[in-house]
Amino acid sequence: MVDLGSPRPIGDVAYAPPEVSVVPDARPAAAGHGLVRVCFRLRLDGGARRVRFIACYLRVAFDDPAVCATELWAGTAPDLGVPTSVSTLPTGAVGWLVGDPVGTDPIPEDCLAHAVVQLPTTATTLAGTLRADASAIVPARVGNRRDHASSVRAHRFAVPLPTGWSEIVRPISLTAPVPTNARPAAVRLCYAADIEKFRRFEGAAAQRAQTRFFDVLAAARRRTGVSDHDVELQHAGDGQFAVLPSGVDESTVVPAFIEGLRSALRETNADLNEHARLRLRVALHRGHVAPGDGGASGEIPVAVHRLLDSRELRTALADGTDSDLALIVPDVLYQEIVRHRYGNLDPDGFTATQATLPDKDFTAHAWIHLSR
């Protein structure tokens, strides 16, 4: 048992040994590699305090850097279980978020996290570390309070691989995300986001900041109602780029995403000191996006990153010391979505600017919103 107790305990988490099985009836993996399916199981215990867990984030880091996860899901199958999002961190670690940190619905005591893992055919064991973070509703003297905690130490695992596992080939998954280059060109909504002054974090603090960052964006996406199976995600250290599926109702998705960012950041920063406080720059854009070998291509994926890196957005967040979010949208989204007050968006909360990035010869009429 490991206390979920940083800075104060709210319960216990027990880890079961990972279960490893072969993947039947499939094609070979990359040359010199094979595939296995692994299930990580943990149990959350609120004890006598009647703690109600509403979210759990499980992170797994493999000892061998050649090991990588090719599919991730939670519950009993890729398309079943409680609301879940998955992520791959720049360090190679993988994560599963089960439940909603800003919600109130409880999650099962037993959390299951699944992966299809590719590893060298010479491997005889699968080893690494697990660490859990949890969000809970905790009884207090007056009503209830929302609390967050992390396991005080990582849990090590090392399980033997099944005999003959390297001869097994991977099945075609009908529920796995479709590769970017398989999606047709279309008008899509995109966002790009990153953490302000990420270099101030070192070691474990940097990993915690990344985890919080990915969790905030995952919570904002869930707020839109768009399935993560339909979202194309690209991670880059302290940043994330996403392309949403074509045909979404922007009058619903844009305001829901913005409110989701505000809400998730409030929850995340509630118990953090000034150094750990998460402050984000986020850019939204919409336009024609085409598939490419390196991911989404076209003017819009480039433009949304130009907006994100613009001098005006950086200055707005640096000067707005009481703000945790600096959001920028192009004039087209302001005129079609914000100006019409969809989802209770307030046009007066956006300031017109000429976004510039001189080194890239970029200039665009845009609007900046600071969330206080």
Could you characterize what this model shows?
With 372 residues, the chain is an alpha+beta fold. The chain folds into two domains: 2-167, Immunoglobulin-like; 180-371, Nucleotide cyclase, GGDEF domain (Alpha-Beta Plaits). It is 19% helix and 40% strand. It has helices at 204-224, 250-269, 299-309, 311-319, 331-338, and strands at 2-4, 11-22, 33-45, 52-62, 68-74, 84-88, 94-99, 110-120, 125-139, 144-150, 155-160, 186-195, 232-236, 239-243, 280-289, 325-330, 350-357, 362-371. A seven-stranded mixed beta sheet has the order 13-14-12-15-16-18-17, with helices on both faces. Strands 4, 6, 7, 9, 10 and 11 form a six-stranded antiparallel beta sheet that branches. Strands 1-2-3-8-5 form a five-stranded antiparallel beta sheet, with no helix packed on it. Helix 1 (204-224) runs antiparallel to helix 2. The radius of gyration is 21 Å and the shape is globular. Residues 76-80 and 169-182 have low confidence and may be disordered.
Distance between the termini: 40 Å
- The best one-word shape is globular
The CATH architecture classification of the largest domain is: 2-Layer Sandwich
The main sheet orders its strands as 13-14-12-15-16-18-17
Quaternary: single chain
Strand tally: 18
Main sheet record: 7 strands, mixed
Do you know the CATH topology of the largest domain? Alpha-Beta Plaits
Number of discrete helical segments: 5
Q: Give the averaged pLDDT, no decimals.
A: 81
Helix percent reads: 10-25%
Structural class: alpha+beta
Evaluate the radius of gyration: 21 Å
In sequence order, what are the helices and strands, one letter per element? EEEEEEEEEEEEHEEHEHHEHEE
Low-confidence stretches: 76-80, 169-182
Classify the beta-strand content into a percent band: 35-45%
The top-level CATH class of the largest domain is Alpha Beta
Tally of individual domains: 2
CATH superfamily of the largest domain: Nucleotide cyclase, GGDEF domain
